[in-house]
Amino acid sequence: MKLLVLENGSKNFGGVRALNDVSFVLEAGERRAIIGPNGAGKTTLFNLLSGMLRPSTGRILFLGKDITKMPAYQRAVLGLARTYQITNLFFSLTVQENVLLSLQAMNTFKFSFLRPLTSDKHLLPRAQSLLEPWDMWDKRDIEVRNLSYGDQRQLEIILALSQNPKLLLLDEPTSGLSSAETTTMVSMIEALPRDITVLFIEHDMDTAFRLAKQVMVLHLGKVLTLGSPEEVKSHTQVQKIYLGEE
Fold first, then answer.
1. Alpha-carbon distance 207 to 245, whole Å?
2. Considering only CA atoms, which of 226, 197, 177, 243 is closest in space to residue 28?
3. What angle (nearest 5°) sits at the alpha carbon of residue 72, between those of residues 43 and 2?
4. How far apart are CA 28 and CA 2, in angstroms?
5. Which terminal residue of the chain, N or C, has fewer Cβ atoms less than 10 Å from its own Cβ?
């Protein structure tokens, strides 16, 4: 089943075309990596898909629905969730409070600003079920600013999962992590339910090739190639442009 379709997507910033006539189809349940050198258009592509930017040309379909002009919050309601290259959390709140806020955002009472977070008792079991599998429940009362960077990155994915996404966009999930933290993050992504489609940008080739069944290479705002990790590794232009081989 076609979950996401991008048709002839382009994005101009003044006289610069950051994304140039990009088209692809993402099937439900797929695990796909996007790689490419700096300036290839990877984050611009994510901004178009998530609704942070509107394409200069082209069309985006999600679950068969045209979402090209749909704002980001409406895409989230449909089941499109995203993390960012720079961690995007409420650092002065605890781990549990961050999760409760995310859960509240998906409920009809999200605009009840005068109610304390902990008053929504029915959300607490859901918060626990999200945190426990990743060994974060014991850290629920820790302010996010006091977590390790690896734990912060994990928490960001947990917040995305709290939205019950059908498609999860991960923007460089292992960026800035130590070797041990990267191992934990890779295990977390591998353990995600198979009914969640994952599209992720990754700078580390070993991680990209391990997690993805399909790898899409961007270069100068265009799709250079799309194929299995083995096909991408052996692609002559990829070796020259991205992997630095002669």
1. 19
2. 197
3. 75
4. 6
5. C
Residue 113: pLDDT over 60: no
Handedness of CA 109, 110, 116, 117 (dihedral sign): positive
Average pLDDT over residues 121-131: 92
* Residue given tokens 């999860």 in the structure block: 168
Instruction: Residue 67: name the closest of 142, 1, 5 by CA.
Output: 5
Task: Give the residue-averaged pLDDT of 118-140.
Answer: 89
3-class SS at 170?
Answer: strand
Q: Which long-range contacts (CB under 8 A, 24 or more apart) does 51-57 make?
A: 51/75, 51/80, 53/11, 55/9, 55/10, 55/11, 55/19, 56/10, 56/11, 56/12, 56/17, 57/8, 57/9, 57/10, 57/21
Average pLDDT over residues 185-195: 95
Identify the residue whose tokens are 């002009």: 69
Could you give the 3-state DSSP secondary structure of residue 12? strand
Q: Residue type for 90, please?
A: F
The answer for residues whose C-beta is within 8 angstroms of residue 32's C-beta and 6 or more apart is 26, 198, 199, 200, 212, 213, 214, 215, 216
Render pLDDT for 61-99 as a digit per residue (tens, 0 to 9).
999 999 999 999 999 999 999 998 777 899 999 999 999
How does pLDDT run across 218-238, given as a tens digit for each residue? 999 999 999 999 999 999 999
Task: Find the angle CA(105)-CA(4)-CA(89) to the nearest 5 degrees.
Answer: 30
C-alpha to C-alpha distance for 44 and 63, rounded to whole angstroms: 21
User: What is the Cβ-side half-sphere exposure of residue 27, based on CA atoms within 13 angstroms?
Assistant: 7
Place of tokens 């969730």: 81
